[in-house]
Amino acid sequence: MTALPRGGAPAEALAEVEASIEDRWRRFLEEYGVTAGTEAENDLAESVVADTSAFEWRVVDAALDRLACADCGNALGAGPTGCGRCDQANGFQFAAIETDRPATPPGTEHGLRVATAVARTRHRYGARARCGFELGLPLLLGGELPGTPQAQAYRAAINKLTEEECERVTSFEEVTRLSSRRVR
Ligand SMILES: [Zn+2]
């Protein structure tokens, strides 16, 4: 599990999403009659990663967690940027299937998927990018998709913060409050 350093609602949301990823993988293993912790689980994870477009994103994320990168030794796709194998796995994971939940705006699940990926491999992104995505996690998990003007307003506000503030804030309300004191 990834403990999100900023804490608050984003950390709680990430923990909930990660639990759903693990839950989905357990059901996936049952569907394939595979026991956790066996060579067969490893083979299944390999086959998922080989064709991410055929599987739900939670299954793909769980499979990546279970495989080690042969080049850098981290979980596959979670190594430093510049590890070619991780960069590739990181890119392929976004080909996975994203099914919007009932009564949520189209694209909410994609947003949740991307925000989760950023939060789980946050060292691969800059402070401002991970601030925006991580603060968005609780909204997206709650089935809320900020519209373009709203997203742009959040981005503009984040750009007024220092990187240290970006790492500390736990809500868009806090970002708005801090940024409104800035002249820039
Ligand atoms: Zn790697």
Description:
The chain is an all-alpha fold. The chain has one domain (8-179). Helices cover 60% and strands 0% of the residues. It has nine helices and no strands. α5 packs across α6. The longest helix has 25 residues, at 8-32. The mean pLDDT is 95. Bound molecules: zinc ion (ZN). Zinc ion binds next to α4.
List the helices and strands and how they pair.
Blueprint: H1 8-32, H2 39-50, H3 57-66, H4 84-92, H5 108-120, H6 127-141, H7 148-159, H8 163-168, H9 172-179
Helix pairs in contact: 1-3, 1-6, 2-3, 5-6, 7-9
Continuous helix count = 9
**Shape, per Cα inertia axes:** globular
End-to-end span in angstroms? 38 Å
Uncertain ranges: none
Q: Give the total of domains.
A: 1
Keywords:
184 residues; mainly alpha; 9 helices; 0% strand; globular; binds zinc ion
In summary, what is this structure?
With 184 residues, the chain is mainly alpha-helical. The chain has one domain. Helices cover 60% and strands 0% of the residues.
